[in-house]
Amino acid sequence: MTSTAKAPAGPSTVDPDDIARFSAIAAEWWDPAGKFRPLHRFNPIRLGFIRERVCMHFGRETKALHPFAGLRLLDIGCGGGLLSEPMRRLGATVLGADAGEKNIATASVHAGEQGLDIDYRCTTAEALAEAGERFDVILNMEVIEHVADRDAFLKACAAMLKPGGLMIVATLNRTMKAFGLAVLGAEYVLGWLPRGTHEWSKFVTPDEMRQGLVAAGLEVREVSGVSYNPISDIWKLSGDTGVNYMAVAVKPAG
Ligand SMILES: C[S@@+](CC[C@H](N)C(=O)[O-])C[C@H]1O[C@@H](n2cnc3c(N)ncnc32)[C@H](O)[C@@H]1O
Ligand SMILES: [Mg+2]
């Protein structure tokens, strides 16, 4: 957070150990073979999903050059900007926010190199909500399993959605299969991610996700699984929410 930012009242969603873990590898965000390789591999499938769901919801032509033009989008927990950049390219006005200063530094430098105009800020969902920021679309991707207070985080995000706005949340399910693949497999056996990246106890079941979204005043429209095939190294959308999944929620028009 910048030195001038005042911490909002209420619980903080920031887990300092988690931010430190991501900050330690912030230089690697844009290395497709580095520590964020899983996110790079996963990116095309989630980009296709986001593009399609946002276009469908706002009545945009998916094949248009800038289908998100006129939409204000928040990428909360944006990391190095792996999603913020394509969102900007699709035409959205993008605010990328992350609690890690180094992540925001990496994201800003990279966007600058790409000639992309993105508003990157080192801040939190609760601080943005308290400042009265409003968005048509909120991307909440692979963040919720890292925050200190899930309900406060979801409520702050929901508060920032305009009526009729859309939020997409991606996370990991709290199953033994997810423990085997995302924790043991990715961190210990394959060594893709630094050990300690994921705390299994913070993973979220689809039921808990639905309840959290509803409690935050949103309507859940969809929950889709995302499956990984380790042999082909390919990710695809599936009916299996046992490990990774994405939820789509809408703020009632009022
Ligand atoms: C797994 S990364 C996901 C990055 C990005 N959303 C993506 O999918 O490419 C999680 C990010 O969330 C950030 N983060 C964790 N807790 C946060 C919080 N309470 N507020 C804002 N950012 C947070 C971390 O610093 C980290 O960059
Ligand atoms: Mg994660």
From TrEMBL:
Gene3D superfamilies: Vaccinia Virus protein VP39
Enzyme Commission code(s) on record: 2.1.1.222, 2.1.1.64
Domain of life the protein comes from: Bacteria
Catalytic activity line of the entry: a 3-(all-trans-polyprenyl)benzene-1,2-diol + S-adenosyl-L-methionine = a 2-methoxy-6-(all-trans-polyprenyl)phenol + S-adenosyl-L-homocysteine + H(+); a 3-demethylubiquinol + S-adenosyl-L-methionine = a ubiquinol + S-adenosyl-L-homocysteine + H(+)
InterPro entries hit by this protein: SAM-dependent_MTases_sf (IPR029063), UbiG_MeTrfase (IPR010233)
GO BP of this protein: methylation
Keyword Transferase carried by entry: yes
Associated pathway: Cofactor biosynthesis; ubiquinone biosynthesis
Residues that hold S-adenosyl-L-methionine according to the record: R46, G77, D98, M141
Example of a GO MF term: polyprenyldihydroxybenzoate methyltransferase activity
Keyword Transferase: yes
Function: O-methyltransferase that catalyzes the 2 O-methylation steps in the ubiquinone biosynthetic pathway.
NCBIfam families (UniProt xref): UbiG
Protein family: Belongs to the methyltransferase superfamily. UbiG/COQ3 family.
Identification of the protein by name: Ubiquinone biosynthesis O-methyltransferase
Taxonomic lineage from the root: Bacteria, Pseudomonadati, Pseudomonadota, Alphaproteobacteria, Hyphomicrobiales
